[in-house]
Amino acid sequence: MALAMTSMTFRSRPRAGGRRGRAPRGYTLLELLLVLAILVAVAALVVPTLFSSLESQKLRKSGDQLRAAFGRARVAAMKSGRIQLFRFEPGTGRYVTEAWYADDERQLDEMTLAQSSDNQPTLATAGQGRERELPEGVLFADAELQPDARAARLEEETGALSAGSLSASPPIVFYPDGTTSDARVVLMNNKPRYVVVELRGLTGISMVSDLLTREELPQ
Q: For residue 4, is it within any domain?
């Protein structure tokens, strides 16, 4: 009896060098192609959404950048006691802020569209101001400026506020007392989506809209 139990116990143990579990089966070519097709389909759905989000973020950033440029021009006018002019080139992202000088000081030359060394058009002034640019893919689409009696008077006295090229916008004027022109500037990307930067002349405060479609633009 003891011998039988010992024999049974011996047989229940796994034998050294015995059969092992089967090796895992590899993927077939068909399975790999199916997984690849699913990944391509998911990417086709996700990538456009991702790029759209990035473009929208750049447009919002551009609106904030323009608002900051207005703020800097207003502060510069108040600190220096000298009028500041803001101009942009429609259809591009280029803009410039420059100080205005009367005839008896140093009247600024007319703003022109000059050719830079790489033959690309650039906003040019008589050594005044620094040209800046919005993020890539964002353009100045439109602008609405309210008539300004003080700007009209300066224009009549010196003609220095006139743009030298039809491609350059009329100036948005920032005065030493903190007031500005009333203006509404529209920026757009290639979607197209828009943001509107509105400048209140009496307070000099600017505001940026949410993203808008063409139908939602203020009339």
A: no
Full pLDDT tens readout for the chain, 219 residues: 444 444 444 455 555 555 555 656 667 877 777 878 787 777 666 656 555 678 889 999 999 999 999 999 999 999 999 999 999 999 999 999 988 876 555 544 444 434 444 544 445 444 357 789 999 999 999 999 987 888 877 777 655 565 554 467 888 999 999 999 999 999 999 888 999 999 999 999 999 999 999 999 987
Q: How many domains does the chain have?
A: 1
User: Is the distance from CB of 145 to CB of 70 less than 8 angstroms?
Assistant: no
The answer to whether 123 touches 95, Cβ cutoff 8 Å, is yes
DSSP state letter for 170: P
* Domain around 85: 45-216
How would you classify the pairing of strands 112-115 and 139-145? unpaired
DSSP string over 93-136: SEEEEEE---TTT-PPPPBEEEE-TTS-EEEE-SS-SEEEEPST
CATH number for 62? 3.55.40.10
| DSSP bridge pairs for 187 | 140, 195
